[in-house]
Amino acid sequence: MLHEKTNLKKILIAVAKGRILDEALNLLKDVGVKVSDSEMKSRKLKIKTNRANVDLLVVRAADVPTYVDYGAADIGITGKDVLLESDTDGYYEPLDLKISKCRLCAAGLNKTRPDLPVLRVATKYPRVANNYYQGIGIQAEIITLYGSMELAPIVGLADEIVDLVDTGKTLKANNLSVIDDIKDISSRLIVNKASLKVKPFEINDIIDALQILIKGKDG
Fold this sequence. Notes:
The chain is 33% helix and 29% strand. The protein has nine helices and eleven strands.
């Protein structure tokens, strides 16, 4: 639980939309940062909490590192997949929140990888995909897509895809199979480096409270 103290400096937390937002709000609520139903239903993108010094920014997952890197937000919550693709270095990554867990996988129409001189791979994670295929000694042509990744092998655009997999139901529905697990993914808390120097009490208070909460959940 966060400490009660007057004259606290303002903290902005950028949280990724969707599943991460829902699960992050539950975590924050458990440490004393609550958002009213009226605020959530207002469709505002800057949301007030019960704490006068803490506001939330609701943004696209891929934009969270940018908001934090440039200091527009002090803290960010987004998936590790996004951070792996980020080329910014203006933030620390002090905490694995252990929410919104899934896997980053290579998948295709068969359970085994085709033996081709160059593998065509569709993904919205070009940096991760390039590092992965280089690491296993396969020459790959990376094709960047941002939606309906499963279509790429079906229509012959790509031999494989690299994408997030949760239950695997979407892959199965499109006759695709996981070929390899690349990395386990969960949501992480990141902190602007300059903010941590200027607002050490406020930021560390949030980090420490979340860390205690997560350790308690792990039991």
